[in-house]
Write a structure and sequence with these properties.
Main location: membrane
Family: Belongs to the binding-protein-dependent transport system permease family. FecCD subfamily.
Distance between the termini: 40 Å
Number of helices: 15
CATH superfamily: ABC transporter involved in vitamin B12 uptake, BtuC
Largest sheet: none
CATH topology: ABC transporter involved in vitamin B12 uptake, BtuC
Pfam family, one: FecCD
Protein name: Iron chelate uptake ABC transporter family permease subunit
Radius of gyration: 20 Å
Subcellular location: Cell membrane
Number of strands: 0
Number of domains: 1
Shape: globular
Length: 341
């Protein structure tokens, strides 16, 4: 029996990978332009029947799918890391204002400082994400009970509302910033060139490494800060490493697809249910990578759905995710034991 049990986590990984692979294929096959599967396959292997088909596949659908994989993994992993680090089931880059901070900083870089290239404004995205996370945490600490889940969520909503208002004010005075603001508000993988994935990948890769390196310490932290300290964990270093990972993952994702919320909230909860069924339990060494594997599936599924439900136009993936994630967030807030924390 002891030899069979490790197969269950591997089966879960295989199932999630298979779902992701299917969604990647669908993302390449479906879109506003009606292309046959045969034409798409020929274009992928260098024998496109026309220049139009080649452009649709390689200039639109391949980058879009790649961004869905990279940014989805980043947002899912950031949400799982935030929930484990703060022991807050409502934690998510979008809910706690981290994405709004990155968006505000990007529009500020474009509208005020005139930085139009990715490598120009991505550093502002990191700074904005970090600053917003610090402000929300300090707001959540106000009062006797400390940073409870609901207080952090309310602080995130307040910071997001404030930053969105200021961002709107900046964008209204600058047409280029307005175009960027409209893009970041909706949250979409469309209208990106083929090099977008390559530009964002190094930042996400570093964030992934930092996040996964936190996993053993997070298992100790789940037992309490005193227990973690008794195990030799340096809590300050763990938090600093976690914040750095969340900043890189969220800032990079927002810089290319905008502030898509609820990915990091919903995915870790689904992963914990699946992990429990697979006999993994609350082991962050499994939960973090599984969140990074499942999140792109949700983002790609939302993007595909947005392409097909409103042809010949599209509904942005961020709108679809918000429509699905909003009720989940409300249900989480209304849970009795959360309301009393």
């Amino acid at each position: 029996m002891g030899r069979r049990r490790p197969l269950r986590p591997l089966l879960l990984v295989g199932a999630l990978a298979a779902v992701l692979a299917v969604l990647c294929v669908l993302s390449l096959m479906l879109g506003a332009a009606s292309l046959s599967p045969a034409d798409v396959l020929r274009a992928l292997f260098g024998a496109a029947p026309s220049r139009y088909v080649e452009n649709v596949v390689w200039s639109a659908r391949v980058p879009r799918t790649g961004l869905g994989l990279a940014a989805g993994a980043a947002l899912g992993l950031a949400g799982a890391l935030m929930q484990a680090l703060t022991r807050n089931p409502l934690a998510d880059p979008g809910v706690l204002g981290v994405s709004a901070g990155a968006s505000f900083a990007i529009v500020l870089a474009i509208g005020v400082f005139g930085l139009g290239s990715f490598y120009g404004y991505v550093w502002f995205a990191f700074a904005g994400a970090f600053a917003a996370s610090v402000v929300v945490y300090l707001l959540g600490r106000l009062g006797r009970s400390g940073p409870t889940p609901v207080k952090l969520a309310l602080g995130g909503v307040a910071v997001t509302s404030l930053l969105t208002s200021v961002t709107s004010a900046i964008s209204l005075t600058n047409p280029e910033a307005l175009d960027r603001f409209r893009f970041f508000t909706a949250g979409t993988m469309a209208d990106q060139d083929s090099g977008a994935v390559l530009r964002v990948l190094p930042f996400i890769a570093v964030g992934v490494v930092l996040a996964l390196a936190c996993a053993p310490a997070l298992n100790s932290l789940a037992l309490g800060e005193d227990v973690a300290a008794s195990h030799g964990r340096r809590l300050g270093l763990i938090r600093l490493q976690g914040v750095a990972a969340v900043t890189l993952l969220t800032g990079a994702a927002v810089a290319v697809i905008g502030p898509i919320i609820f990915i990091g909230l919903v995915v870790p909860h689904i992963v914990r249910v699946l992990a429990q069924a697979a006999g993994i339990g609350p082991d962050q060494r499994w939960l973090l990578p599984l969140s990074a594997l499942l999140a792109p599936s949700l983002l790609l599924a939302a993007d595909i759905l947005g392409r097909v439900i409103a042809r010949p136009t599209e509904v942005q993936a961020g709108i679809i995710v918000a429509f699905l994630g909003g009720p989940f967030f409300i249900a989480m807030v209304r849970r009795r034991h959360l309301a009393e924390v």
